[in-house]
């Protein structure tokens, strides 16, 4: 049993969660671009609600990406800062794997998940996972693709999860047969906490300074023309 604080700010949704033993408590807010203003007060309120201090934790997890460049930096920076101050280790959890876990929590039959996040600029962040035991095996590593070029996976039992299917569903379906879609799913801190728990329990978390976001894209800002498109 481990106690973990998790932070997820890779999308416009800002979520924080506490996993204490087997009980998860989560807070969330539609942040837009205000993650930096919301996340620390949300953490403080959550810790107060659960009557916990940072020395009570085994570590801090964060949504490492891919996703919003600014959001990823905020989650990583906050996790590092809190962990440095409390002498804790850190675990960065991929947002696409968190989507797979979210799909599994909604539908226990979703053991094959194509996770896809709208990356803007006509592209998607894509990965695929197969459920094995209590965790996931990566079948296609996280990558940045045009929707019509995503990797094709064997079989048609795949569940599509994430905003990529809301933005580019027709193109993605034409490329990859699916059994179901969950286009409204977004990464959340509770899934980050669940996926991080084995890392802390098995001693696989890292020192704060070694934690890094997963950006996947070199270009992180839109031009004025691209924003209007």
Class by alpha and beta content: alpha/beta
The CATH topology of the largest domain comes to: Nucleotidyltransferase, domain 5
**Tally of separate domains:** 2
> Which CATH C-level class of the largest domain is it?
Alpha Beta
Major sheet: size, sense and barrel closure? 5 strands, mixed
Topology order in helix (H) and strand (E) letters: EEEHEHEHEEEEHEHH
SS element count, helices: 6
End-to-end separation: 49 Å
Mean pLDDT: 94
Task: Indicate the radius of gyration in whole angstroms.
Answer: 17 Å
Query: Which residues sit in consecutive blocks of at least 5 with pLDDT less than 50?
Result: 220-229
Beta fraction of the residues?
25-35%
Tell me the total number of β-strands.
10
Lateral arrangement of strands in the main beta sheet: 3-2-1-4-5
User: If classified by CATH, what would the architecture of the largest domain be?
Assistant: 2-Layer Sandwich
Outline: globular
CATH H-tier superfamily of the largest domain: ATPase, nucleotide binding domain
Helix content: 25-40%
Describe this structure in words.
This protein has six helices and ten strands. Helix 1 (35-49) crosses helix 2 (69-86). It has two domains: 3-95 and 187-228, Nucleotidyltransferase, domain 5 (2-Layer Sandwich); 96-182, Nucleotidyltransferase, domain 5 (2-Layer Sandwich), CATH 3.30.420. The chain has helices at residues 35-49, 69-86, 95-106, 163-175, 189-201, 224-228; strands at 3-8, 13-20, 23-30, 59-65, 89-94, 112-120, 123-132, 135-145, 159-161, 180-182. The strands form two sheets. The chain has a five-stranded mixed β-sheet with strand order 3-2-1-4-5, sandwiched between helices. Strands 8-7-6-9-10 form a five-stranded mixed β-sheet. The chain is of the alpha/beta class and 229 residues long. It starts with a strand and ends with a helix. Helix 4 (163-175) links the parallel strand 9 (159-161) and strand 10. The protein is globular and about 50 Å long.
């Amino acid at each position: 049993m481990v106690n973990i604080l998790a932070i997820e700010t890779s999308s416009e949704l800002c979520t924080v969660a506490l996993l204490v033993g087997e009980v998860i408590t989560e807070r969330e807010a539609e942040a837009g671009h205000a993650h930096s203003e919301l996340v620390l007060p949300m953490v403080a309120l959550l810790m107060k609600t659960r009557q916990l201090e940072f020395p009570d934790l085994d570590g801090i997890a964060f949504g490492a990406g891919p996703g919003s460049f600014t959001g990823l930096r905020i989650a990583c920076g906050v996790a590092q800062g809190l962990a440095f101050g409390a002498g804790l280790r850190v675990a960065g959890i991929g947002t696409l794997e968190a989507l797979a876990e979210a799909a599994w929590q909604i539908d226990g039959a979703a053991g094959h998940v194509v996770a896809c996040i709208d990356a803007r600029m006509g592209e998607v962040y894509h990965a695929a996972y197969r459920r094995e035991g209590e965790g996931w095996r990566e079948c296609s590593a996280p990558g940045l693709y045009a929707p019509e070029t995503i990797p094709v996976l064997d079989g048609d039992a795949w569940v599509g999860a994430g905003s990529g299917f809301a933005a580019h569903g027709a193109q993605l379906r034409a490329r990859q047969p699916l059994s179901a879609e969950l286009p409204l799913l977004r990464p959340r801190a509770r899934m980050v906490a669940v996926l991080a728990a084995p890392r802390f329990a098995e001693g696989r978390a890292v020192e704060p300074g070694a934690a890094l976001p997963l950006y996947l894209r070199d270009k992180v800002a839109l031009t004025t023309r691209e924003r209007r498109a």
